[in-house]
Specification:
By secondary structure, the protein is α/β, with parallel strands linked by helices.
Length: 220
């Protein structure tokens, strides 16, 4: 998640009526280390303010790891039943849809979980290189294309949020990041597939990146 993306989400989430936002389910949350150390702005801007005010934040992922509250697959009806018992008011789905082959099905499931007056916060890369996790379908939608995936919900706000240059988008200093990338590129025999990913990234280092960010609400 880009810093600017997290800031955009956080500013909207904490401007809304907390009773219509929390408990919030963070789908594809990754683990605590990722949210607090690899990309520390995620926790700082999105989750820490809510925790400090006593709001319920439920991190959900397929991988059982530290900081994951619910472990399961959205394709599993039993897991969906477990989620329905949490009385969630909103869902955060950030940087997940581009990694799904059944995107329409998952979007329909998410939409069905949102109660009346509840929210769905969705972000997807707009200008960003291929990134394997474990796949990338290269889904890079506009606001309108993202809206079409959730016909039962109303758009509250949508924007293409700029994240600056890719080189500046990590918690590592740009100079160190560039050095590590250069070293990686001269070693193609080590993990060739990941080397290809690094090559794709290197072509984007000085390009502007951005994310499509949309807030939906169920009106009825």
């Amino acid at each position: 998640m880009l810093r600017e993306e997290a800031n955009w989400l956080g500013s909207i989430i904490y401007s809304l009526d907390a009773g219509e936002v929390f408990p919030i389910l963070n789908i594809g949350s990754s683990n605590q280390d990722f949210r607090e150390k690899v990309q520390p702005w995620i926790d700082e801007l999105l989750f820490k303010p809510g925790r400090e005010q006593g709001y319920s934040i439920i991190h959900c992922d397929m991988k059982d790891d530290a900081g994951v509250d619910l472990v399961g697959d959205f394709n599993n009806p039993l897991f969906l039943q477990e989620i329905s018992q949490k009385n969630i008011q909103s869902i955060l789905c950030s940087n997940l849809l581009e990694h799904l082959t059944n995107r329409e099905e998952i979007c329909q499931t998410m939409s069905s979980l949102i109660p009346i007056n509840g929210y769905l916060f969705v972000t997807v890369p707009y200008r960003f290189p291929y990134h394997r996790d474990p796949i990338d379908t290269m889904f890079r939608p506009s606001v309108e294309e993202l809206r079409q995936l959730f016909p039962d919900l109303e758009i509250v706000q949508g924007e293409i949020v700029s994240g600056g240059m890719l080189l500046q988008s990590t918690s590592v200093s740009p100079i160190l990041y560039l050095l590590v990338m250069c070293i990686r590129l001269i070693l193609p025999v080590y993990q060739p597939l990941r080397w290809l990913d690094s090559l794709r990234y290197s072509l984007w280092l000085f390009q502007e990146i951005s994310a499509t960010c949309v807030v939906f609400k169920r009106i009825s």
